[in-house]
Amino acid sequence: MRIRSLFITTILIIFNIYAFSSTAFSQTSGNTAASDTGRRGSLTIDYKKKINLLKKAEDYFKQGNITEAEYYVHYALNNGFDKYDCYILLADIYKAQNKSKAEAGALTNAIEHSPNERLRDESAKRRDVIFAELKRKKIKEAAEIVALDTQNPSKVTKLGNIFLETSEPDKAMIQYNYANSLQKKSKSGKYGLIKMYLKQNRLNEAKKLLKEYFELAPADTGTVYLLASYGININEAKDLGYNGQGNFDRRKYNKTYAEYYFKNGYMQYLKENYESAKHSMDYALQYYTTHSRAHKYLGEIYYSQGMFSEASHHLRIAFEYYPTDYEIGLKAAKALLFSNDKEKSRIYLESLLKIDCTNKTYAELLLKSGLRMYDIENMGYVNPDKPPVKKRRPKSVNTDKNKKNKNEVKSIFELNSPLSAPGSGGQQQLLPYSVSPTGGTSYPQPAENK
Fold it and tell me: What is d(CA 101, CA 221) in angstroms, rounded to the nearest whole number?
């Protein structure tokens, strides 16, 4: 008993020493954390409560801390806060930083994510004011340059280009004609007029001027690319005076020419003139076979018309360029499934499961392709309606062995207790025992009466 009490006392002393040392260490570390001053200082994070990043950004903006406000509003955008509120606050931040172009860009995103028409109109009016100011500033700078040298045709042409970009063709024409009057062989003035005529769809006037221009610059490939962007091919350019020389890039020409027909096809697609749209986009693919948007819209047209084999061809190509666009991938998988190409359909559905592992539509289509639910779950599908499987608590390593040792110790003390053996003369007597090498106990047998 004395040994037992000494053992308990020793344990209590060790426990008190450990508790005191841990308390001192926590106080020391707390003081150290409080004394550290980093970018954020000492920050206590409550993981059970979501930080309102947008509110913190607004508070920093009101305090005049623009850097921190911009930092938090970008984090708010990336963490699912209301996009309209974030972009409006971002526009205010850019306005405070005198970044007009960035402010206009933020307002464009705010218009896209506006929850109602009133807020959309307010954002659009504010953006239009910024655009008007930027245009006025740009014209003023160009006009000041021209005022310094009014006899320079290239500077006059640049002012005309700015008027053309800002949708003021009448003022642009005045500048181009003035540049041509300064120098009869001026290429810049004629080139500006050609661009304006093409933009206004005045092809006959543009072609007349092109003949004069190619007499001055017969190997100008830039003009050939410009004509391609308005649907005038290289053979027509040669008829107008292009000599076929210069650093002509066939791939660049094909892409530019194909883009013109794609735009025409897309306009027909929006008007639901699908046959005309197919004709234009097919023609665009003849010049630029990897035009991703042409493949996308052609696939959608064929899909809507029930031509699933053709739709799957175009949608699969488009999905290679837009691997995260689930709508293209889903239509490609459906088109393949309806075309009885189940194996390829499974490949696309499995890639879609990696984007959204709880989508029931993907699982249903995989079931229709012939897979079992067990196989679909092995692909990574998680059924949102199915309750989560409770994991069993793993057993400790030597549980059975520990129980056996406890039972052996208990039996030893029971046998050695005063109530376990009969005594002589009304007194109980303890029986001596010994522990065998195998872990058991042996007791002496009573002597036989001789």
Answer: 32
